[in-house]
Amino acid sequence: MTDSPEDEVVKAISAADWLQGNIVSGEALKLYIPDSVLTSQFDGEVPDFWVLASHSCTVHARKFNDAPLVEWVAIKVKKKSYPPYLNALNPRILQLEITERKIFELKIHRRLWTSRKVLPSLTLDRNEAPALSDEQRRTLSFWLSHAYNRIAMPDALVERLKAESDNDGVKGIAICVDQFLKDNNHMLASAWVSFNPKFEIQERAEPYEVIFRLLTKREHARQATELQAKLTEMVGVGREVSEGLTFGGAEVTVLQDFTMLDAEDFVRYNQHDWLSLGKEDETSTEEDTD
């Protein structure tokens, strides 16, 4: 039986080993993007690069018609990173450090779909484009999914964590943790939080129990003790917290010491996982202008 043109496309994709996180130049993909889409979604400008956002299983679907389209996210190259945008801490903007002076910035709304048929024709361009590390691919995958499955903290808990000033005159715990993440994000792989109960508590006399775990990148494991000292100083683990919270501590952990059992009790945390009480994305005067 002769293979159909679609079968040949699937075989070519498999042979070229296309995967989520592969990158092509902006100009290469432009050939397959209608001008109207570039005008309406990207202000008529071709981005520096595109990253393949579709899951690798979708990219390699054996039957072409099971996954006829693939998704791409636009990449803008910047010269300087902005810590709050690293490690998927922001669900709308992600930065990936390719080199010290080459930062890839992605915005979740800057994306589009093309036919899966275009992939084989882009293989050569992909091979010449910068490549993401395995860790960066995992970060990208989490960031893409996190846009849809962000944790939903009870509003009552958010109010207690984000208090500008607790009863003792000290900032809310989460504000201190957020500042620590902003200052040290380049050395951290991810942040996690455990909170109980999961539902709204209106009576402040009934407390929420909260614990934070911050994981260092493997290459910064030796700085874990130093980071813990900074975190303890900023959060004030030993102090009494405001009414309505039982603080179980904030711990810096080496990445490889965070187990599957831990993952059952903790959920991934970032500075924007707050319902109606969340603030708008902050900007940096030091980052490149768009």
Radius of gyration: 22 Å
Order of helices and strands: HEHHEHEEEHHHHEEHEHE
The chain-level mean pLDDT equals: 86
User: Total helix count?
Assistant: 10
Spatial order of strands in the largest sheet: 1-2-3-5-4
Strand content: 15-25%
Q: Based on CA inertia axes, which overall geometry fits?
A: elongated
The profile of the biggest β sheet is: 5 strands, antiparallel
Separation of termini?
53 Å
Q: Into how many domains do the coordinates divide?
A: 2
How much helix, percentage-wise, in residues?
Answer: 25-40%
**Would you tell me the structural class of the helices and strands?**
alpha+beta
Low-confidence stretches: 275-281
Give the number of DSSP strands.
9
Explain how this protein is built.
- The structure is a single chain.
- The protein is α+β, with helices and mostly antiparallel strands and 290 residues long.
- It has two domains: 5-149, no CATH class; 155-268.
- 30% of the residues lie in helices and 23% in strands.
- The chain has ten helices and nine strands.
- A five-stranded antiparallel beta sheet has the order 1-2-3-5-4. The protein has a four-stranded mixed beta sheet with strand order 8-7-6-9.
- The longest helix has 16 residues, at 134-149.
- The protein is elongated.
- Mean pLDDT is 86; it is low at 275-281.
